[in-house]
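Hey all, sorry for the wall of text incoming. These are the two entities for the joint prediction.
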Amino acid sequence: AQSVTQLGSHVSVSEGALVLLRCNYSSSVPPYLFWYVQYPNQGLQLLLKYTSAATLVKGINGFEAEFKKSETSFHLTKPSAHMSDAAEYFCAVTITSGSRLTFGEGTQLTVNP
Amino acid sequence: GAVVSQHPSWVICKSGTSVKIECRSLDFQATTMFWYRQFPKQSLMLMATSNEGSKATYEQGVEKDKFLINHASLTLSTLTVTSAHPEDSSFYICSGRGDTEAFFGQGTRLTVV
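and here's what came out:
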């Protein structure tokens, strides 16, 4: 079975600072990996996805993530945080495209002015 | 991207009554729909997987008689919470499976009083 672990349930950064949200996965077969963002009382919005093409994946709102097989990681980064980035972020994994997702516990990102 | 419309976005009901939540795929055919439950400050927990025209597959620990799922067409799946109790209060999110990824509804905040 596949799983993801998000290190750090809360991350706080200053506006304009680098955002780094960590995600490590476990899968016996090559995984598909996703990052989603959730604002309060809303559904999930896809930020980016890795589907075995390029290891550096660029997403929406300036986010990107790099798939590192040797480290079983898929960390999410953004060079400069904006106040509107404050939200809950979920890393997710599946082994079949479009199939059920297994989510991490989530990381709450706070952006301080 | 594809759109999944979920209604209602919030509902308050009395204990003992039933509530129906609808999930529609607006511009694609979702042969598979996933229903998740999310408690405050927690991740998404998969409740069940429904395939159009067949019975839903429930995750361990989820009462199928309490959470009735119907997937009568390729664009509509419904979740009915029967005889709701305060402990059923939660955020429910549906997800439709597309060709390459899953698309999420906006979520339904259910409060049972």
